[in-house]
Amino acid sequence: MRKVLLWTLPFLAFLTACTRPSKIELQRANDIQARVDAIAKLYGELELPKHFMESPARKRGGEFEVPQTLSFFPHLRMENGYVLDYVYHSQGAGGEPIVYARKTECPPFADETAFVASVRERAHLDDVESALRKYQEEEAKAVSNPAENGAAFERLQNRLAEIPDHDVGHWYLKHIACDGSDDGFIELAALRLIGDRFYLFWHACYSDLRLILTKEKAEKVMGGLEESKLPQFTHAKKPPKITAALLCPKVKRDADTVTVTFHVFSRWGGLSLLTFKFSPRFPHGLRESEPETIIPYDCGIVY
């Protein structure tokens, strides 16, 4: 208990007031936080359909419809003539949806196999699969060496970064338009993170993130944490002052780019700052920067 207090109390001590955000920024943060939390609640109440654990995983009717998520973001809309849909990716170690946009007159894909076949060439999936096989070989050799294991994962990320348009799970964002407001671009970044975070199974839960846009949310999510399972040296850096001004999402604009920044929390990473760069014109495109860890944390749970 003493160790828990030594970690959590200094964090809570930094939840103090400093330069207050404007009323508009504060209201925006609270409003979007409430809607994001409502989506998380909706996802949490969903029961994973048993037939999604069968092969091939296919819809049978009555499953969650992903356009419900978009209804929580009033500053976003689908491109005319398109609708959101998904297939389910299921494997022994986990499962999650793959969201896509299709023309309204086109039938949905029957399953993941049909979807992958339709995007294989454009997404350079042969190259992606080759990179994954290489990583699996390197990971097997580094199974008892955490440092080399981490280096192997970093090499995988570098290989994937060189493969154009391979992130098929987020192509649907190219068909989502915002109204041009700051709220709209924040919502677009939030949708990027949580639009496909329903029906998560087993290992897919590692990628489940919580958006932290208000000080109240930070207190609720982080205030009651148990001791981090990370090595002690990772806690040596003094945490920043976690204030409403810090956590309010930021939007900066120039002629060609709208930059959105906000914080997220993961039980397998801690509090991180994310940066998204959009084109101000539709289709908005998206470039993401590497997350910046603000307060490291690991719950120690291994699925």
Q: Could you characterize the architecture of this molecule?
A:
- It is built from 9 helices and 11 strands.
- Strands 6, 7, 8, 9, 10 and 11 form a 6-stranded antiparallel beta sheet that branches.
- The radius of gyration is 20 Å and the shape is globular.
- The chain has 303 residues and is α+β, with helices and mostly antiparallel strands.
- The model is unreliable at 1-18 (pLDDT under 50).
- The chain has 2 domains: 2-124 and 164-296, no CATH class; 125-163.
Topology:
Elements: H1 2-13, H2 23-44, H3 67-70, E1 76-78, E2 82-91, E3 94-103, H4 112-123, H5 125-141, H6 146-161, E4 176-178, H7 182-194, E5 201-202, E6 210-212, H8 215-222, H9 244-247, E7 250-253, E8 258-266, E9 270-278, E10 287-288, E11 292-296
How would you concisely characterize the structure shown here?
The chain is of the alpha+beta class and 303 residues long. Helices cover 36% and strands 20% of the residues. The chain has 2 domains: 2-124 and 164-296, no CATH class; 125-163.
